[in-house]
Amino acid sequence: MKDLKQRDRMLLMSSPQPKKALSKGTITGHYMLFLQNAMNPMDQYPDMKGFYIAMNNSPIHIADDIEQIITKIAYRRTCLPPYSQELNPIEKLWSIMTPYIKKSQFIRKEGLTTRVTEASDGVRTTTILNMSRHSVNMFDKCLQMEPTI
Question: Domain residues of the chain, as ranges?
Fold first, then answer.
């Protein structure tokens, strides 16, 4: 009987499996791991329990699994409404880093944290300062509802 079960397992493992399209970019699982890695240090500070974790409405951010992970650990999630990228330098930074992060399929030991770290290491400090200055310079235009292009 044992040999039959072992043989069945071997047949299952060797039978052709339908090929799935592999995502080159970030998927919800990567983001879940990234969040857990970010929340672990936060857990060392009991005063942070109940704090909000803010994110945009990207599909990987609004998955039900993400909500469950955040609330299970006693934090709260909030999704930001669309806003002016001109006032948010992090959006410009992500636009530079995203192609590197999505460059290829994630390998087994690699995670989103690794890709973000490597991508951010390639961005010059002067670039980040210029993005921030641009946002500051655009603030009055946005308040006056002037075109920013």
Answer: 25-82, 85-149
